[in-house]
Amino acid sequence: MSETVSITIPAVVPLYPVREIVAFPYMIFPLFLKDEELARFEEMLEDDQLVTLVRPRDEAAPGGIPPFFEVGTLCKVNQIQHLSEGGAKIVLEGVARVRVTEVVEFNHHLQGHCEPIHEFVERSMVSEALVQSLNALLKIALSYGRPLPEDVMKMIDLIDNPARLADLVALYVNLPLDEQQQLLETIDPLERLKKVYMHLTSEVQRLQVKGEVQAEVTKRVGKSQKEYLLREQMKQIQEELGEEDTRAAEMTDLRKKIDAAGMPSEVRKVADKELKRVERINPASPEYTVARTYLDYLAGMPWKNATRDNNDINKAEAVLDEDHYNLKKVKERILEYLAVRTLREKMKGPILCFVGPPGVGKTSLGKSIARALGRKFIRMSLGGMRDEAEIRGHRRTYIGALPGRIIQELYRCGTNNPVFMLDEVDKIGLDFRGDPASALLEVLDPEQNNTFTDHYLDVPFDLSNVMFITTANQLDPVPAALKDRMEVIRLSGYTDEEKEKIAVRYLVPREVEENGLAKNPPAFADEALFKIIRDYTREAGVRNLQRNIASVCRKVAKEITQGKPLRETITPAVVEEFLGPRTFFNEVASEKDRVGVVTGLAWTETGGDIIFVEATRMKGKGELILTGSLGDVMKESARAALSFVRANGAEWGVGETAFADTDIHIHVPAGAIPKDGPSAGITMVIAIVSLLSVRPARRDVAMTGEISLTGRVLAIGGLKEKVLAARRAGVKTVVAPARNRENLEDIPDDVKGEIAFVFVDDVREAVQVVLQPV
Ligand SMILES: Nc1ncnc2c1ncn2[C@@H]1O[C@H](COP(=O)(O)OP(=O)(O)OP(=O)(O)O)[C@@H](O)[C@H]1O
């Protein structure tokens, strides 16, 4: 099927050149003419009111008729509307495409020989498809907001002639005049339809992008406008409250601090983000304080601040010697450790752990190490710590959250390589709030502490430059995993002589200075110091000694301010006057030998100590009663002792009948102090033998040793501590396991001079030494 669009037209039609528009058939459009143009136009028109509109080609020929495009549109003048301001609006309607074959001048007007162009449309699948697609595309274009007069829309819906449709849509698509002209000249309607379709497609694409951009812009403008308004409002409120200036100053300060902090880039990102947030929060809200405190911590952490190490080992040695008396072996090991540290720049070495009784100088050694290296010193006690958060901090979501102690201390210290002393690792606890020991492990482990992440800070902080030193009174309770990472250095107690020397060189000058006596320092007589050591203290270290010296100094200071005569020398009598009656007695020397009471030696966390094991018997059913806060191991040791005596009692005249109808009670005063360990085994055997054989035990003989069921005496720990305690108590002879003989070399010579040592393999030998003959 085919359709022909045709019209009968005169052979010669008035020709009107128009530059600004390309007229299409079916198009109704206005043409505005000035007065003189109108006059010419009207003159030219004939009765049939037809005129052919053509576009002149650009290159105008001088004089004569200008060249025109070949194809133009024959139009009918529908209306001439004179305008009040002059000129007129001519309403024209496109009627048909025409080919202008010749242009002539007639009566000063142009006339064209026009041939109608027949537009054949082959109805085919292609044309149908094109019409449908074009329609669909038009609808899309409309949905993007391209306005189209309603009547045009209706027309489009009605048109089923592709040639007409193509012309109508050509009007609708925004095309430059030249391209419009090309479309006009495309005679084949299908070809025209295709071209129009292409143009419309790119138009839709353009509209689509424009739409997206516009939507984005609107969104952004909307958001920023809203923010702007809110911020302005906030500013006004703040101004009224007089907060704006301080807040701005605070923010500038914070920014400066963050700039200067030298944070790693990922931390810097977090800080910047938080700073942005803080600027938007109302300063009166609690959230502001939380965010500010967080930023303060972030900016205040010593990300890059470090002290320069003094690597001179000789100086380190001099410092250690200056601060501490003796402790040769300990100093030697510290210096070795420092030397290795110096040689291997970034040592992932073990952590030093000082183990020893209180007051022997563990903490002050740490301070000296810091002084020797030129580092800052931090001390933190882990005693009783049960909450993991104390080490690792609370997450910021908790109200009142703060960083853990490690981060807090480093923040306060201001450098990232201090000597960090963790006191009392043996007293670290564990409960439902987590396991601080495992958190501590993370802090101390050189493999992972370079990215230690505190819950509060929430960004990693490098702890690998910190030199951690731990201290403990006893090693046993320290969790094995921690112990594994530490290099243990043991410090034992001091002898009276050593204490006296420490007092003279360090404690007295320090207390004299502290108590304002530097101008008139009293001289402490040696005997006075010994008196304090022996009669007023009973300790492995020198803490109480220092306290008593301080007390004497305070009394002297008081007398000076009261105007009393100056005490030039502190004699034993003055000590007694100031400190009152002696607090400790020589327990052993002052006691008589008794049946069933034996002196033992124990090792506690405060150093060595003497204990008395008492045994008594009464009528009963052969039971063993144990009192005195004994631990499980000690109770078992008592049972073993009793079994041994029952099995071997005959050797000392103790028959099996001795145990019949008898209860044996073993008590170890002081009853309130918990005691444990196997080393009192030998003492218990001797107490029972003494009781049952009725042979008094020598009070001035003290013993220590674990026993086996066959009576062998097994090695024990802490001999030095025990011997020092024995000496303090006035013991004359110490009975110890033969296997501990090698520990004798740790014991100072002056002590060896005062105490006799008996090393035994079998408990029977000990009985000989301790029990008096019948
Ligand atoms: N060998 C020594 N030379 C000089 N002063 C010493 C010596 N040993 C200890 N002191 C002094 O004794 C006091 C107590 O020592 P410090 O506080 O270091 O004990 P500690 O072993 O850390 O005890 P604790 O286990 O209770 O923490 C300090 O003033 C210290 O200077």
TrEMBL record:
Reactions performed catalytically: Hydrolysis of proteins in presence of ATP
Known EC number: 3.4.21.53
GO CC, one annotated term: cytoplasm
Keyword Cytoplasm: yes
Entries under CDD domains matching the protein: RecA-like_Lon
Active site, renumbered: S679, K722
Listed GO biological process terms: cellular response to heat; protein quality control for misfolded or incompletely synthesized proteins
Alphabetized UniProt keyword annotations: ATP-binding, Cytoplasm, Hydrolase, Nucleotide-binding, Protease, Serine protease, Stress response
Residues annotated as binding ATP: G356, P357, P358, G359, V360, G361, K362, T363
SMART domains: AAA (SM00382), LON (SM00464)
Positions of the Lon N-terminal domain: 13-204
Induction entry: By heat shock.
Broadest EC class assigned to this enzyme: hydrolase
Superkingdom: Bacteria
Entries under NCBIfam families matching the protein: lon
Subunit structure: Homohexamer. Organized in a ring with a central cavity.
Function, in words: ATP-dependent serine protease that mediates the selective degradation of mutant and abnormal proteins as well as certain short-lived regulatory proteins. Required for cellular homeostasis and for survival from DNA damage and developmental changes induced by stress. Degrades polypeptides processively to yield small peptide fragments that are 5 to 10 amino acids long. Binds to DNA in a double-stranded, site-specific manner.
Similarity comment: family membership: Belongs to the peptidase S16 family.
Annotated PANTHER family: ATP DEPENDENT LON PROTEASE FAMILY MEMBER
Name of the featured protein: Lon protease
Organism expressing this protein natively: Geobacter metallireducens (strain ATCC 53774 / DSM 7210 / GS-15)
